Amino acid sequence: MKLSGIQKLTLLDFPGKVACTLFTPGCNFRCPFCHNASLVFSCVRNITEEEVFAFLKKRTGILDGVCITGGEPLLQKDIAPFLAQVKALGFLVKLDTNGAFPDRLEPLLQAKAVDYVAMDVKASRQNYHTAIGLATVDLDSIERSVELLKTSGVDHEFRTTTVKGIHTSKDFEDIAQWLAGEEKYFLQQYTPSDDMIGDPFEQFTKEELEAFAAIVRRTVKNVEIRGI
Fold first, then answer.
1. SS in 3 state form for 176-218?
2. pTM greater than the 0.85 cutoff
3. How much is the pLDDT for 199?
4. Which pLDDT score is estimated for 169?
5. Mean pLDDT, residues 206-214
6. With contact defined as beta carbons under 8 Å apart, do 57 and 89 qualify?
7. Strand order of the sheet with strand 92-97?
8. What is the model's pLDDT at position 192?
9. 113 and 83 in contact (C-beta within 8 Å)?
10. What's the whole-number mean pLDDT along residues 118-144?
11. Which of 70, 130, 79 is nearest to 103 (CA)?
12. Bridge partners of 155?
């Protein structure tokens, strides 16, 4: 399992839990607004599993959980045994994913290897290729991951990082139909960084984000905005 870094304490990444966050390298998407470009383009292991488990053993009884993010964690073919070791130490596991690998997500859900999943819904289905920075997109895989989470019984959320110049109200009208009946959806304010894939974009105003949220609230029970 390739690991590029660790944030030893977070009160935000795992809802309601005290956790640490592990970062995996590499991603199959090239979202132009991504603020972790160095992770996306790197496949370098900067921290070993031994270092991670030595740290976790010292945090037993202090941390509730471990967040696995990227990059795209499901690019790691040996993620299942790694998560099994984390769970064996008594930690809850949260997985962040872009939903492109349903064949790897499904067995994790079936085995209850994850306790919480956050899946990015990058844009409307018609606009997905723009949001992920690629000429084409395998929407069937994305849609399958959405359906897997909907029926999994595993606590989860869907979320969209909102970017002026990429998203419009039409995106959220489609997302509202796509996620109809879901419990949780989050709009996340785009934040520029010094480690971006593309040039900086503009942020939506609070009022614009509230208007997008109102669209999705027609079909999703709990819709919140993060980052404002």
1. HHHCCCCCEEEEEECCCCCCCCCCCCECCCHHHHHHHHHHHCC
2. yes
3. 80
4. 97
5. 98
6. yes
7. 5-10, 19-23, 65-69, 92-97, 116-120, 155-162, 184-189, 222-226
8. 86
9. yes
10. 96
11. 79
12. 116
**pLDDT tens-digit map of 68-103:** 998 899 999 999 999 999 999 999 999 999 999 999
222, two tokens:
């709990």
Position 47 pLDDT exceeds 80: yes
- Placement of tokens 């998407």 in the chain: 29
The CATH superfamily holding the domain 5-226 is: Aldolase class I (3.20.20.70)
Q: H or E element: which one contains 105?
A: helix 102-110
CA–CA separation, 170 and 164 (whole Å): 13
Beta bridge partners of 67: 21, 94
Instruction: Calculate the alpha carbon distances from 152 to 40, 47, 85, 148, 158 in Å.
Output: 28, 32, 22, 6, 14
The whole-angstrom separation of Cα 19 and Cα 7 is 9
Considering the chain, what percentage of its residues have pLDDT values greater than 70? 99
**Where do the structural domains in the chain lie, given as residue ranges?**
5-226
Site of tokens 């607004």? 33
Q: How far apart are CA 197 and CA 133, in angstroms?
A: 10
pLDDT at residue 37 above 90? no
Residue whose C-alpha is closest to residue 64's, from 113, 110, 15: 15
pLDDT confidence tier of residue 44, bands split at 50, 70 and 90? low
Q: What b/e sequence results for 7-34 when a residue is b if at least 16 CB atoms lie within 10 Å of its CB, and e otherwise?
A: eeeeeebbeebebbbbbbbbbebebbbb
Calculate the CA 200 to chain-centre distance.
Answer: 21
**Among positive and negative, which fits the CA dihedral 128, 43, 111, 186?**
negative
